[in-house]
Amino acid sequence: MIVKAVNSPFEGGELVRCREMERSWVGVVVKTTVAGLVVKEFGSNRRQAVPASRAVPFSKFLERLRRARKLKTVYAEFFGGAVFERMPQQRLRALFRLLRAYGIQFDDWRTGANDYFRMWANRAHLVCRKPTRSASASLPEEVAQWLPKWLIAEERPASSRDPLGLQAGAGKLADGLLPGLTVFTSRVGYFFFLPWVVRYVNALLGISAAERRETINRIERALVLCETLHHGEEGLRHCYHQGQRSKTGLLAQAAATASLPDRILKNQNNTGCYNLYRNALLSCGVWCEDDEAGARGLLPYRLSVRGEQMAQVFDRCEGAQALLRWTAGNTRPRPVGELRGWGRSFCFCDLAKGLKQRVQFLEGFIFAQDDAPNVVIDSAVRRKNLDALAAARLLHLRPSEDNASRRAVIADEEMDADGAETADGSENVGVLLYFYTHRSAPGANSFVPAAVYELLGLAVNGIWKGLLDDVPARGRLGVTDWVVSTAGRSSIPDFWRTPLRAAAAKVRATERMLVGRLSEGEAPVQNGLMLAVKVFSRRENHSVLNELASTELQELLSATFELKPDQTVQETLPVLVWQLLERHRIVSERKCKQQWLQGDGHDVWRTEERETPMALGFHSYRMPQLMSLARDLQLERSDLRRA
Ligand SMILES: [Zn+2]
């Protein structure tokens, strides 16, 4: 039942926060009238008429609040009056149920009265707008059961297709190749923008740490707005920012004037540029950690001399000071033409093109011009690997002038929902396969372990996918029969009948071809087995496999592929299946996620319905992000020599 009066922002069944003289309380809208609302209190079930000016939708309130409050305060607002020093457990559960029912997520491990309790609206929540019973009447059990799981699912990043837990190992190898970079660090502009913002924010007096974070967020939102207006609809994809997805909406809202956006990212404190770039800036020596500042409620970073110079680059942009005044003041809407001009002056596509700026960035990024040991070490590693990429002509230097290739749209499978634009991790695959097949290329040694890890990871994920695809939605799959029928369907039955130690000879396809087939999802079990057999049998991989011996992946596979070389491929598969299932169980438990499949030693069955099939690919090694940084800088080969 939806009851909505004309012009009322409220709807029947909506959660609202009402303000009275001495207290604030939360209730549910029973109906809306011309004069305002009728709101039912949770604690007493009393209905009260509330003028519209005294009520605000609870989700709006949360959005503006943006800080944690004590649990006892929150509780008192919901259930009236009493402020408990010890939370009554049963009523606390009622509060949690209520929040979940209204699509509000919260820190559910915070259960002490004086714990700071954070809440935020779940944007994907489908609101059930009907007047509820009082909170003490609990939700039906089946509803309560599915709600939390469903809420968690919404939070899962796109990288959640990691049923065998191979991501962590890949992440470590990626850190070894390009320390400091992550799947998010694709724009050089942030290396100049952030020190400028942090310097400004830390100089503000008399505000709390949370307010400092919020100030950064506001400035970031203003930056994205100006960039969006500057590029217009045509150019949006050429200049990527955190919050990219909000840009179309920002454009649509702007008329002659535009206001500071309320929101460009879900949970900006986590997904905004400050959080995603802070370690990269540390690794490049733009700033260093400053615990003492942190203890005083400042942001815990101190700019280096270079960071100071980089901040000045932003200082000098037209509109930079005006932008700070705007975000600090009453943020009245500004003329679009003016905001567009500001966006032009600090557009990330051009910001780092001056000689000085490029040198400042490169000194920290690859020339190790710093006193801090972490910067020196990280930068030397980056330079060595950048050199290897350049020598192999894998770095896209000298970008051509057309917009398509200047595009700094970066994404790969790992980026969160707000970041994902196009999935193009092909650079990761291309780079790793190049060094896998060109072992004598300068610097290849650094890349080969990652390549071997990815090939084996793809092989094992392929086998897992093949199994997953064949398990029926309902009912069981007998593993022995499945292995026989999979082998029986093969166009190369010989391969299945051969002992492992000789099986590689039966595989005509190269590793590269097998990667291609697996990425297409073609015969994933057989191609996965072939790829694993190939990688294990190749002599030049042996020392690398030893290097990877401590990884969980290698542990998993060597038990199958190395210990019983006289077993045929067909005999090996069921052993591997049970190992993968056990691995999946452990990984799911560790991540507190539901298992996709379970087995009992004979049969396998589904424990979670999955609508989208599992896709196969390499993990991210931050190559697209590196290429984007190189594009922003218009990096040339000669830059790598300039020490
Ligand atoms: Zn731009």
Strand content: 5-15%
Write out the distinct hetero groups bound to the structure: zinc ion
Largest sheet: 5 strands, antiparallel
Strand arrangement, largest sheet? 4-3-2-1-5
What is the count of distinct domains?
3
Stretches where pLDDT falls below 50 for ≥5 residues? Answer: 1-6, 125-160, 398-423
> What structural class do helix, strand and pairing data support?
alpha+beta
Secondary structure: helix percent: 40-55%
- N- to C-terminal separation? 70 Å
Shape: globular
How large is the radius of gyration?
A: 28 Å
Number of strands: 16
Mean pLDDT: 84
Number of helices: 29
Characterization of this structure:
51% of the residues lie in helices and 9% in strands. It is of the alpha+beta class and 643 residues long. It has 3 domains: 15-127, Roll (SH3 type barrels), CATH 2.30.30; 154-183 and 398-643, no CATH class; 189-351, no CATH class. A 5-stranded antiparallel sheet has the order 4-3-2-1-5. A 3-stranded antiparallel sheet has the order 14-16-15. Strands 6-8 form a two-stranded antiparallel sheet. Helix 7 crosses helix 14 (336-345) and helix 18 (426-437) packs across helix 19. The longest helix has 27 residues, at 209-235. Bound molecules: zinc ion (ZN). Residues 227, 231, 239, 347-349 line the site of zinc ion.
